[in-house]
């Protein structure tokens, strides 16, 4: 069973760099599952630069915008894997559902998250999931954006519950929210009154 670590925070908070550094510290083979779809020339250039930078440090990159569980099962055995990022993955899942003229709900993301967790249980190694905290600002002005925010929040809750460690990055500074290895307690572990 792979150890799950969730790394979350705002945009440009240092999540990816932190995840990559933590992964490299394990001393295992390194796998990067990138969920970003290729949408324009600027994104293509950004993806290429990131892939080249990681390759120079020994990373293998797999581009998989939708079937992250399948990519983990196919490539993740014995690896230290960074999945970057869950919020883009959610965007891709919502887009695919929209193309099929279906709705994508919190129940759908719970199912997909549980598939990811089951995939982690089938492999050995460590999987670091990177995700954005998108619900800490103004309530979005439209239904789709509010649904996206809610789905991302549900995804983060599901993955945090399964993770041995949860780290929040703020301005490049990691704050450990959960660390089962040291028996730190979470808010939800408090006895009910």
Ends apart, CA distance between termini: 35 Å
What's the name of the CATH homologous superfamily of the domain at 28-124 and 133-154? P-loop containing nucleotide triphosphate hydrolases
Q: Give the amount of beta strand, in percent.
A: 15-25%
Question: Helical element count?
Answer: 6
Order of helices and strands: EHEHEHEHHEHEE
* Strand count: 7
The percent range for helix content is: 40-55%
By secondary-structure content and strand pairing, the structural class works out as: alpha/beta
**Nearest-integer average pLDDT:** 92
Output the CATH class name of the domain at 28-124 and 133-154.
Alpha Beta
User: CATH fold name of the domain at 28-124 and 133-154, please?
Assistant: Rossmann fold
**Global shape:** globular
Task: Provide the gyration radius in Å.
Answer: 16 Å
Strand order in space, largest sheet? 3-2-4-5-1-6-7
Give a description of the structure:
This protein has a domain at 28-124 and 133-154: Rossmann fold (3-Layer(aba) Sandwich), CATH 3.40.50.300. Helices cover 44% and strands 23% of the residues. It is built from six helices and seven strands. The chain has a seven-stranded mixed beta sheet with strand order 3-2-4-5-1-6-7, with helices on both faces. The radius of gyration is 16 Å and the shape is globular.
């Amino acid at each position: 069973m792979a150890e799950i670590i969730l790394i979350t925070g705002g945009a440009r908070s240092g999540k990816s760099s932190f995840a990559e550094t933590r992964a490299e510290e394990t001393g295992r083979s390194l796998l990067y599952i990138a969920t970003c779809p290729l949408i324009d020339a600027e994104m293509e250039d950004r993806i290429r630069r990131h892939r080249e930078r990681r390759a120079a440090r020994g990373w293998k990159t797999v581009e998989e915008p939708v079937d992250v569980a399948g990519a983990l099962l196919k490539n993740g055995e014995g690896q230290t894997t960074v999945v970057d990022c869950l919020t883009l993955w959610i965007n891709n899942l919502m887009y695919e559902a929209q193309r099929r003229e279906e709705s994508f709900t919190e129940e759908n993301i719970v199912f997909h998250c549980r598939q990811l967790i089951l995939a982690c249980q089938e492999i050995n190694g460590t999987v670091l999931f990177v995700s954005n905290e998108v619900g800490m600002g103004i309530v979005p002005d439209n239904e789709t954006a509010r649904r996206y925010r809610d789905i991302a929040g549900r995804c983060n809750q599901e993955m945090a519950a399964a993770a041995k460690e949860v780290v929040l990055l703020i301005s490049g500074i990691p704050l450990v929210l959960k660390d089962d290895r040291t028996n730190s307690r979470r808010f939800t572990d408090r006895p009910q009154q």
